[in-house]
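Practice problem 4.
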């Protein structure tokens, strides 16, 4: 048998399922979906209507916990939920406990961890990793190879350029004190982060603030200001025509 669909799974009308795909117990797949080849949809996962899931993708994977992990917990997770009209690329992994809104695009080779929410119309680019306990707003764009560390929050209309890195551990895995201080980053509404910038743990990018390419952010950035450098410092105001309110 080329594919396996559990007898208790629900498949909507006019949904197409590719070869060698597995759909688990009590999983729900809406109407008009296109499910590629060699896709795994784990038990209880919920897929909305008119969703496209490309080859080799996994939906609803349970997390693995290393003996020394500081952020992965043993816990009962809710099913993975994919909203209507989403597009999920090739070789994507979306964990149990993740929730995607409507019309989200998750490009090839990306990972969305457990206890993550992604708002409507957001684009998660190729090779992006969103770690656990993150909240990503609506109308955001995370470009290729962005890394969003655990316990981070991005509000609506945030733009993150390729290869941006974030961190949540100022102690770099040393001393027990670090467990009291884990904190991801926060990017407020309309914040933008340029190519290859680095945001250190616990820092906030202000509303409509812009971090220039290659900068290292070591303290919170003011709203509507451009910061740049190593470490990043205020350079000038964001031009009026670039402010979110003028788009």
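Answer key:
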């Amino acid at each position: 048998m080329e594919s396996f669909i559990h007898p208790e799974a629900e498949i909507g009308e006019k949904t197409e399922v590719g070869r060698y795909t597995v759909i688990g117990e009590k999983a729900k797949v809406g109407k008009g979906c296109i499910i590629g080849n060699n896709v795994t949809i784990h038990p209880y996962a919920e897929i909305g209507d008119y969703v496209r899931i490309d080859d080799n993708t996994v939906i609803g994977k349970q997390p693995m916990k290393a003996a020394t992990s500081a952020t992965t917990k043993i816990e009962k997770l809710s099913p993975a939920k994919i909203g209507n009209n989403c597009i999920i690329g090739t070789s994507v992994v979306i964990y149990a406990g993740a929730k995607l809104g409507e019309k989200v695009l998750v490009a090839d080779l990306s990972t969305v961890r457990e206890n993550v929410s992604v708002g409507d119309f957001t684009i998660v680019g190729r090779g992006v990793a969103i770690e656990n306990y993150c909240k990503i707003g609506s109308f955001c764009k995370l470009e290729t190879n962005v890394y969003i560390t655990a316990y981070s929050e991005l509000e609506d209309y945030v733009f993150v350029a390729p290869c941006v890195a974030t961190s949540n551990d100022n102690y770099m895995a040393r001393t027990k004190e670090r467990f009291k201080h884990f904190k991801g980053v926060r990017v407020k509404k309309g914040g933008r982060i340029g190519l290859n910038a680095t945001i250190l743990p616990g820092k906030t990018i202000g509303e409509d603030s812009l971090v220039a390419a290659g900068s290292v952010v070591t303290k919170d950035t003011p709203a509507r200001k451009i910061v740049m450098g190593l470490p990043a410092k205020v350079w000038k105001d964001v031009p009026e025509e670039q402010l979110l309110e003028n788009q």
